[in-house]
Amino acid sequence: MQLFEKLIDHHEAVRLVLENTSRLPAQRTPLLEAQGLALAEDVRAKFDSPPFDNSAVDGYAVRSADAEVGRTFSVVDEAPAGRPANRAVGEGEAIKIFTGGVIPRGANAVVMVENTTGWGEEFELKKAASPGQNVRSSGEDVREGDVILRSGTEIGAPEIALAATQGYGALPVHRRPRVVVLSTGTELVEPGVRDLSPGEIYDSNSFAVIAQAREAGAEARRLYAASDDAGVLRDAVKEALESADVVVTSGGVSVGEKDLVKGTMLDLGVEQVFWGVRFKPGKPLFFGVKGGVRVFGLPGNPVSAMVCFELFVRPALMKMMGRNDSKRPLIEVYFEEDVKNQFGRMHAMRVSLESTGRGWLARSVGAQGSGLVSSLTKADALALVGPQSEGVRAGEPVEAIVLREEVILGGAAPASSTSAKS
Ligand code: AMP
Ligand code: MG
Q1: What is this structure's pTM?
Q2: SS3 sequence of 293-312
């Protein structure tokens, strides 16, 4: 039996994961496919935008010097959006214009049709106009050469809109990591396929991990639930290593006789970065590297697998996508009662959050067993308790990783209780 050589601290483990992970190459990606990805370089304006002076309203383009109340204008042409007028505006003349229409030569103001006697070959002005009135100037939005989007920015709807105004059909973004997920365990059965026989359970980890990876913005697929047979496991891991940026296994990574994952990884040329973290739930976590592939061996207990993904795999995926900014929010929470931690390792405790006059009150979701999948559906955050064996005292501030951001966004805690530390 193999024992853990050396357990490392959870912060050290995160540091090692990030140190051994780099940004994926940039790819020019069609605008809509870039949504949710981060820019790999600054994007500049190719031209002044808007590209020409244009009207903000429907009305008449005139010379402001002529625009006195009571004056009559003759309408000499029109300038709908997309079709500039053929002639210039002279003294006492007007050109019918619509929102987005090019301001004709000679004109320097637009009077709203509401401030005239109406549409016709002639009109009388009911309200004076000043120079530039209702004119949207060329370049008032962005100037040629300006950096309009910074490297590292996550592409959302406003960024897509701005890039489109500048004619960008594609943007240079870091591609999504390809994650291959692989469960181990002879006891595992695919959900939805058949009933369980004695001793069997459904594979939940590979589904959970794929959902987590996709939520982080990665592409993820499931290889198949492998058995604990060494040959089957080896073939599956080999195939995963050939097609992924990140391989995530679950189960079989502890110190039992059937825990073959680590040995299989090493046999297949994966270099171990660490195995064993002084942290609960998820002590047996394995992390290694093979060429461009990052390999995480998550423990099999469902809560451990998901919490380890959250704490160690998610930051790696974010970094690969160039999204260093999108960490989960960290807040300070407090407990109403003393919380013990007798594990001698940091406990990422599943808690619910409540906004109170004193800040965020954390309550354990109940039993913290690492097989209790239902507990995760009740958790708003992971409170990081310990590693001191005495735990934390009632009222003492504790750092917590927020899993459900909507809870803190909708909450009414005083601003002083939430800190955007990183
Ligand atoms: P292991 O780490 O393989 O010893 O597994 C620890 C516990 O997690 C055992 O009770 C397994 O049955 C369970 N387990 C392992 N893999 C999965 C999985 N993919 N889905 C659900 N439970 C699992
Ligand atoms: Mg197992």
Answers
A1: 0.86
A2: EEEEEECCCHHHHHHHHHHH
